[in-house]
Amino acid sequence: MILLDSETYEFILRIIVYTLIDYDVLEYPINPFELSDKLGLKTHPYSKLSEEEENILINFSKDGFSTEKSNGEWHIFYRDKNMNQFRIRYTLMHEIGHFVLAHINIGGEKEEAETNFFSRNIIAPNVLIYNTLSFNVSPQTIGEQFLLSKQASEIAYKNYLNWLYRFKKKGYKDYEIMLLNNIKIKKLVA
Ligand SMILES: [Zn+2]
What we know:
By secondary structure, the protein is mostly helical. The chain has one domain. It is built from 9 helices and 5 strands; from the N terminus they run αβαβαββααααααβ. Bound molecules: zinc ion.
């Protein structure tokens, strides 16, 4: 896994907030289908295709992929059969990340690291974890509130602890305040 520089991380966190506000996707847990619709992306489940075509796609990519047509239309194909909703959400956000970050070299190590960071942070922004779960933050509550798999919840929790350490010393960033002021959260954890 490659590490990105801190300016890139910061840039992506800022892009996330601007995207949510510009495209009016303001409810959490976030709905990746709503975001892709509003961005003008077309989504296609593998299951819409014949079984034979579906198997070809699974061999090509076990989760999903994007293609851009010559007319500029962006299409996301994602595997849905035998996949839980958490994994589908993550796959869609990963592909949306490639689009939002204007990646050309999809599959490149740097591009994959960037979009993985994008998808993690747009699904469960640390500042929303802090404000929604406050004294009840754990991998389990993060997973329940932001609809993450068990594995993704563990990773989100570790990232949150790093964020919290920085936050306690330095406080909110401007884009974090923007996010807090605009997002409505449907509470799923008591
Ligand atoms: Zn990718």
